[in-house]
Amino acid sequence: MLTIKIAGPGCRNCHELERRVKTVLETMRCEATLLKLTDFKDIAAAGVMTTPGLIVNDEVISQGKVPDEAAITKWLKDAGAER
């Protein structure tokens, strides 16, 4: 099972990234643990320097933008998401 973290203080883009990740997970019918990092110390410790950040299995996949659902789908598949 994947562990996915959304890193950000709760801004509009952070919420949009979370929404897109949830949509992709539902579409893929994939189970994952979805966590939110909102404390800047935790965000920086995770390796994210610009928010929003997307972390999959403790690897920073994206930061500073809201990727589209196609990119998120590819990244989750590459990380071993159940199909």
Attribute tags:
83 residues, globular, Glutaredoxin, alpha+beta, 4-stranded mixed beta sheet
Secondary structure topology:
Layout (H helix, E strand, L loop, with lengths): L1 E6 L4 H17 L3 E6 L2 H6 L7 E4 L2 E5 L5 H10 L5
Parallel strand pairs: 1-2
Antiparallel strand pairs: 1-3, 3-4
Helix pairs in contact: 1-3
Order of helices and strands: EHEHEEH
Top CATH class: Alpha Beta
User: What's the gyration radius in Å?
Assistant: 12 Å
State the domain count.
1
Spatial separation of the terminal alpha carbons: 11 Å
> Which structural class do you get from the secondary structure elements?
alpha+beta
Which spans have pLDDT < 50 for at least 5 consecutive residues? none
Q: Tell me the overall shape.
A: globular
The total of helices stands at 3
Number of strands: 4
Biggest β-sheet strands, sense, barrel: 4 strands, mixed
What does this structure look like?
The structure is a single chain. With 83 residues, the chain is of the alpha+beta class. It has one domain: Glutaredoxin (3-Layer(aba) Sandwich). Helices cover 40% and strands 25% of the residues. The chain is built from three helices and four strands; from the N terminus they run βαβαββα. It has helices at 12-28, 40-45, 69-78; strands at 2-7, 32-37, 53-56, 59-63. It has a four-stranded mixed sheet with strand order 2-1-3-4. Strand 1 (2-7), helix 1 (12-28) and strand 2 (32-37) form a beta-alpha-beta unit. Helix 1 (12-28) packs across helix 3. It is globular, with a radius of gyration of 12 Å. The mean pLDDT is 96.
